[in-house]
Amino acid sequence: MAKFRAGEQLSGVGEFINERRRAAELSLRQLAEQAGISNPYLSQIERGLRRPSAEVLQQLAKGLRISAESLYVRAGILDPEGHRTSGVSEAIAADAGLNDRQKRLLLDLYATFESQNLAEPEPARPDQARKGQPQEK
Predict the structure, then answer these.
(1) Cβ count within 10 A of residue 64
(2) Going by CATH, does the domain composed of 6-119 fall within 1.10.260.40?
(3) Is the pTM of this model over 0.70?
(4) In terms of Cα–Cα distance, which of 49, 69, 53 is closest to 61?
(5) Where would I find the H helices in the chain?
(6) Which of 98, 102, 112, 133 is least enclosed by beta carbons within 10 angstroms?
(7) pLDDT, tens digit, for every residue of 99-131?
């Protein structure tokens, strides 16, 4: 398990939120409004002066269109080794070649695939099937 100092976690998550906000071309005011928090509070989070709750991180992740888990890891709430994210959501959000509508559609589709995969494990592919067992056709 990785060990972080509290100050490093706070500034790390704040810097990350600031970078993602700028990449999404959102003002401080716009993201604060989407997350349901005040402008000064968001500013303090970005500067590493305040520790946001998991709920606030989740709302910020929604506004930034990234996974809440990526913020939880940066804030030290989740163990980075136990919760690896694929980075797909972050890549979509950062892609300047996509407009907001396209990003939302891709993120919604990706979230649907993720939830389906959690609910229904993928069947074994023919090349992974055990020898001597019948394969589905």
Answers:
(1) 26
(2) yes
(3) no
(4) 69
(5) 6-23, 28-35, 39-46, 54-64, 68-75, 88-94, 100-119
(6) 133
(7) 878 887 887 787 777 666 666 665 656 665 555
